[in-house]
Structures are given as C-alpha cells and as structure tokens.
Design goal:
By secondary structure, this protein is mostly beta strands. Helix content is about 5%, strand content about 45%. The chain contains five helices and 52 strands. The longest helix has 9 residues, at about 330-340. The termini are far apart.
Length: about 750
C-alpha cells in the first residue's frame, strides 16, 4: 500500500475525490500501473493505492494527474522474501556430460512467488575436483555455467543468503577416446593412436601389455612384449619373440583389441575405449634380405650346404624359404625336385655329393618371404668340380677378442676332405680308405666389410706370415675399439684353382692400464709438505682425461680435508698436504683412477702407498723407475732410482748420501745381492731374466743424508709384479729350416716354466 497527499501550487492541501493519481512502476520491460484515489479519514485525508509486485528489484515510479506528469524518476526498491525451493524452478539438469560445459538455470522465488535475484553461493558434491562454476544474475533468473570433472550422481547446492536450493543430477561419462590408427611402425613395433589424450591406461611405470590389450591380442604379440605410452595419445607396442600378429595385406590380418575398462580420456571421466582396429602394414615396404653362404667350388666328393640362415628382414620372425636350381646334366631334374620338396622352415639345404653331376656350373636360387608377404630371391653360383678341394678352417675360435697391446696369432688349417673319393667306373663317390694331405699355399687378406687393415706398415717378419698358415700381428698394431676381419685362403699348390677360404673376426678392446703413486711408500717428518702424484700407464694412450679419487686410512685420528677434493687432486692426480697436516702415525693413501673408454678393466684402478709420519726430522725419499707399469715382463731390465729430497742442494753444500737397497717377495725370496748390480748406490739395476715370473717384489731404499752438523735418515719402498708365464703347454714343430732335423732344434725356457711337451711333425 502506498499513501500520498496532494498539494496545489501554493502548497495548499487538496483533499478532493475528483483528483485521481495514475502511478506507473517500470523495471526493464516490466510495467505495473495503479490508481491512487482519495481515502477520507477522520483526520487528514490521503490518496492511497494497493500495488502487487511479482518481481523484486528497483522500479522507476512516474505519477500523473489529469494527464500531467506530477513527478517522475523516483526509484522504488522492491525486496522479495527469502528464497523457497518449493516456489523456485531449476532447469538444465538433464543431459549433463562429464568434461563438457553445462548450464543450469534457477528462477528463485519467495513464498509469495516473487523472484529473488540475489547472487547465490554455488557448490557441488562430491567436490573432489573443481567444477569451474560461474554464476550470472540476469533480469529474471540466475544461470550457473560449469564443467563436471566427474560422472555419476552429483548434487547442486545454491545458497541464497542462507536459503538453500538443492537438486541432484546424473552426469554421464564423456565420449571415449577413439582409435584413429593402429599401424606397424616397423617390423617389431606397433603404434596405436587415439584422437585425444588418454589416462595412459593407468599403466604407471609398468610395461605389461596385458594391462591395456585384450587376451586375444596379447596371445599374438610373442614372448615378452613391451607396451607403454610414448605420449598420452599414443601407445607403443614392442613385439616379443615369436610374434604371430599380422597386418592388412597378409592372408589373415589381425585386429588389435583394447582391454575393456582400461583406457579412458586424460581426465578419467569418459567411457572406456572398447573394441579395436585392423592392424595396418608399415608405410614403407620392408623386403627380406637374403644372405646365402655356399662355397664357390665344391669338390667332386663333397656334400654341398647352401646356408640361408643368416637372412633377415622379418622382424625376428621366421622367414619362409623355397629353393630351385639352374644347371645342366643328367641329375638336374632329380636335384630340382629334391630342392622343391624342402619345407618352408628350412633355411639350410644339405645336398648330397651324389645328387650333382661333376664339372657343372649350378645356380642355386633361394627365395625368402617375410610375414608381410614380401619376397626376395638371390642366385648363388656353385661349381661342382671334378677334383677335390681342400677344406680350410680357422683353428680355434672364428671370433677372437683381444687387446691392442697383445700380439695376435691366427691359425689357419687345411685338411683333405678325403672321406670319399670319386669312382670313375661307378661315376659316384665311394668311401675313401686312404687320402693324403697335399701341399697347400696359404694367403691372408683383410675383410673389407670390417675395419680397414693396413698391411703395408707391417714389419717384414710379420708381413711374411700373411703367406703362411699362421698369420701374426704385432702388439699395438690393431686399433682399440674396432673389429677387424681376415680371410684365410688355402689352395692346392699343384692346382691353385682348388681353393677354399675361411673367415675370422677380431674384436680389439682397450687394454687395462696401471696406476702408480710416484715415489712409493716412505717416511716423512710431521713438518714436511707431502706431495703424492698418481701416474697412469695406458698402453693405448687413449686421448681422454683421467679422473682421480683419493682416500686415506690412518692408525691415528685423521679426517680428510679440502685438499682431497681439489681440482689438482681430482683431475690432475696430485694430492698436496701442507706441513703439520698429518699427525704422527701410519697413513695408507689410495688413489682410484678412471679413464675412458670405461670398460670393466678401465674403471677404479687403484694404487696405494704407506706414508709413515714421524715427529723427529726424517729425510724425504722417493723411488723412481724406468717404467710406470705395475706389471713387468720378466725379460725386461728393471731400473729403480732412490731420490732423496733436496739432493742437489745438499751435495752443492758439501753434504753426501749413503744408500742401502733391500728386497722382499711374495715367495720369500730376499736375495737381492745376487740379482742386482750393486745394492748400495743411488740406482738399482736388475737385468732382464733375473726376476721370476708371477711374483710380487717389494724394493726398499734406506737413504742417509750426511752433513757437517748432522745426519738424517729416511726410506721409501716400491712394489713391482712380474707377468705370469704359462705353467705348461705344447710346442708344435711343423717345419725346421734348411733341412735340419728335430734333434737340431733348441728351445730356451725362462725360469719358472713348468713342463713343455715337444711335438715334431713334418
């Protein structure tokens, strides 16, 4: 109800019933009209009007009387009562999909049905993730835009100043990822592509294909397949051994089927991928590579083997083989039929010696077919000779691993395949009861498919072995880190066309290296500066830096300081400790060196020395040598040098030194005097062949500095090991020069060798 009083222009009160006021309330497109008439009362009469508003909000009031506007532009605020759910309406609850934008519209009304456009606080439950909701208050309703991150039953709660409107809705999962491509990326790899990012099948770090692919598909992936998402929209399948799955283009292509309930969208709120797709062949056609091994010439009484087992191009699966032959002679039809009868899984064809005519050139044709249906054929010529050809083979292993610092001898052998001989009368091969080895000329050549071997720089004594059956390569001639191939060809000296070859492969590894600490073990004064320098003896001189790690074990309390981690210590191998750093006692210093290439023999190679720190003054002494190697060949002369500190200065000032050398060994031998050329000088020289093989020797130098005022003594020690010679073996004498007999031959045995068996053979 609204009350009003009327006045004329002179502000006189007008209480006439003929004065009617027309009231218009406007809000947007909504307009409400009312008339206010005089209501007589006992007191002052007023004009009154009753107006019913159906919407809350701000209305603009205009008042007219007698067609004239009395006043206008007055704002009238109409407030609705508290929102009541029973009077309010909610739309948009149907068809909500997880991951898709949705809109819910609420028309909030009070108990009288008036719209209350207050801004609500909106929440969803369960609220484990954000719904990203935005609330917009319009002229007649409140809209809520949101994206549900989950599917299932979801409840909306809209709080209008304490009055809550609540409604449940069912959110459906979003559409599942779709398979866009299932293709072989190679013969051993399948790529499964989806049209959107996925949840990676919840595989985590697992590579178990059974987590995401059906049992039917898994059974065709072979033994030990691996699966993993290379990116959220791409699953990579690496086939296992003996896989049988086939792509389109094969006789029976397979479908890659996804395991039900495993692969969803990235948010995990979609339906799961179901079904699968046909496996497509690789974009690039992959044909087999046929590798055939067969002798160019086969002897008249030798079986022939045509070996295609080295063929490849089927992703590790078996190739299907077929054989045919071209040639002449009375046996060609029978031979052809025998080859055609071989099964497709036979990669090696064994042909009997009597299945071919002699003196005939044959072409053996091997055809291989991979599982994609692609084929390749190779024609291999073989001459069936009318004589017998020597069999050439590498004695021992046909693949040798050695070190570049080692001398290599490769033995090639020839033997007469004389189990059968040709019977001219019977025109067939019969058992040979005799058969002699005929003279064979040997030649060695490098295999051009391997690392290049330069024979032009070989010393003459080694180069000459390339025309003997035992080819010898000097130490440090083959380059470390490479694989070389050599071919030994043996030909009948009387008929050079009767020849055969054998191959050997030599892999050269980097040699182990030695690490020593220059100067060896010694005594020092506590007041002396200690400098330890590691020396690396690398037979390969590999052009790579060395890394060092220093450690110390003491019989007194001592903790390593920053000097152990300095650049000089870690990269230069020089550890320097200042005076009075080490407390008196015994300290064992160990250095570990690692130098690339880091093979098992070239990591953490260590060396240790014992430094005895004394409180009184001690003469600093170190021992040098004519080699940095820890292990010495027994035939090599060993020279050691006793080096007192400040020796030149002492002598220049009139002082002198005395020296005394001693020795201990792992076999108890301490007799140095009989081995060295003097044991009381600055240097110690032990001629080659004096030290026993396989023994650890420790040499000690006791030095005394003598001056006019005093004398000071000190000592140092150094351990040298000798190589171990074989304890027994055989020496095969196959040829003696200049017609000498076996009794003319002599063999010098170094001390320490055991029994040697001598075998003479002409």
């Amino acid at each position: 109800s609204l009350l009003g009083a009327a006045f004329d222009n002179y502000e006189n009160f007008v209480a006439r019933s003929d004065v009617i006021f027309d009231l218009t309330f406007t809000k947007g497109t909504t307009s409400i009209a009312a008339k206010a008439s005089l209501k007589p009362t006992a007191g002052v009469s007023t004009h009154e009007v009753d107006v019913t508003f159906t919407e809350s909000g701000v209305y603009t009031l205009q008042v007219e009387a007698g067609g004239l506007v009395v006043f206008s532009g007055v704002n009238v605020v109409i407030k609705a009562g508290p929102v009541v759910q029973a009077k309010s309406t909610i739309t948009g609850l149907e068809g909500v999909e997880a991951g898709a934008k949705a809109t819910i519209t609420i028309v909030p009304r009070d108990a009288a049905g008036n719209i209350n456009l207050a801004t609500p606080v909106v929440t969803f439950s369960p609220n484990t993730q954000s719904f990203g909701e935005t609330v917009t208050v319009g002229t007649n309703a409140v809209t809520i835009d949101f994206t549900s991150p989950i599917f299932g039953d979801v409840t909306l709660n809209a709080n209008f100043d304490g009055a809550i409107i609540s409604s449940a809705m069912t959110v459906s999962p979003s559409a599942p990822p779709a398979l866009t491509s299932v293709k072989m990326a190679s013969l051993t790899t399948i790529t499964v592509t989806f049209d959107m990012d996925t949840n990676n099948g919840n595989m985590g770090a697992s590579q178990d294909c059974g987590l995401v692919l059906s049992a039917a598909t898994l059974a065709k992936l072979g033994v030990g397949p691996l699966c993993g998402f290379t990116k959220p929209s791409e699953l990579q399948v690496i086939l296992g051994a003996d896989a049988t799955i086939l792509p389109v283009g094969s006789t029976a292509p397979d479908t890659v089927i996804v395991k039900d309930g495993t692969i969803l969208n990235a948010a995990g709120n979609s339906y799961a991928v179901t079904g699968g797709a046909l496996l497509q062949a690789p974009d690039t056609t992959v044909v087999p590579s046929v590798v055939v091994k067969a002798p160019a010439t086969v002897g008249i009484c030798e079986d022939l083997t045509v070996d295609a087992s080295g063929s490849f191009g089927s992703g590790g699966r078996n190739l299907a083989f077929s054989y045919s032959v071209e040639g002449l002679g009375s046996k060609i039809v029978t031979l052809s039929d025998a080859l055609k009868a071989l099964t497709s899984d036979q990669s090696i064809a064994d042909i009997d010696k009597n299945a071919m005519n002699y003196g005939i050139n044959y072409n053996f044709i091997v055809t291989a077919t991979n599982f994609l249906g692609q084929t390749t054929s190779v024609k291999t010529p073989v001459y069936r000779g009318d004589t017998q050809v020597p069999t050439i083979f590498i004695a021992g292993k046909s693949a040798i691993t050695t070190e570049s610092s080692s001398k290599v001898t490769i033995p090639c052998r020839a033997e007469m395949p004389g189990d059968f001989v040709f019977d001219s009368a019977l025109q067939t091969c019969v058992k040979n009861e005799g058969g002699d080895l005929f003279p064979v000329d040997f030649t060695w050549t490098g295999d051009k498919t391997k690392a290049t071997f330069d024979a032009t720089s070989l010393p003459a004594s080694f180069a000459s072995t390339m025309t003997t059956r035992d080819f010898t390569i000097p130490s440090n001639y083959l380059e470390a880190g490479k694989t070389y191939g050599f071919v030994c060809t043996g030909a009948d000296a009387a008929a050079p066309d009767r020849k055969q070859s054998a191959n050997v492969e030599i892999t050269v590894e980097y040699s182990a290296y030695d690490v020593t600490i220059v100067g060896g073990s010694r005594d020092i004064s506590a007041s002396s500066v200690l400098t330890l320098e590691a020396a690396v003896f690398d037979p390969n001189d590999a052009p790579f830096p060395t890394r060092y790690a220093w450690d110390v074990a003491s019989d007194v309390t001592y903790k390593k300081g920053a000097e152990f981690y300095s650049d000089a210590a870690l990269t230069g191998g020089v550890l320097t400790l200042p005076a009075n750093e080490l407390p008196p006692g015994t300290h064992v210093f160990t250095v570990m060196a690692s130098k690339e290439p880091l093979t098992s023999k070239r990591q953490a190679v260590s060396s240790s020395v014992t430094i005895t720190v004394k409180e009184q003054e001690v003469l600093g002494v170190s021992i040098g040598a004519n080699t940095d190697a820890k292990v010495l060949k027994p035939s090599k002369t060993l020279e050691l040098f006793c080096d007192p500190e400040n020796a030149a200065e002492t002598v220049a000032n009139g002082g002198s030194f005395t020296f005394a050398w001693s020795m201990t060994s792992s076999i108890g031998d301490a007799d140095l005097a009989s081995k060295a050329n003097g044991v009381d000088g600055f240097s110690l020289v032990i001629p080659g062949g004096t030290l026993l093989p396989g023994v650890d020797y420790t040499f000690k130098c006791d030095a005394t500095k003598i001056t006019a005022d005093s004398s000071v003594a000190g000592s140092a020690a150094r351990t040298v090991s000798t190589e171990t010679n074989p304890s027994s073996g055989k020496v095969l004498l196959v040829k003696l020069p200049n017609g000498k007999t076996f009794t003319d031959a002599t063999i010098d045995l170094a001390s320490g060798l055991g029994d040697i068996e001598l075998i003479a053979k002409d």
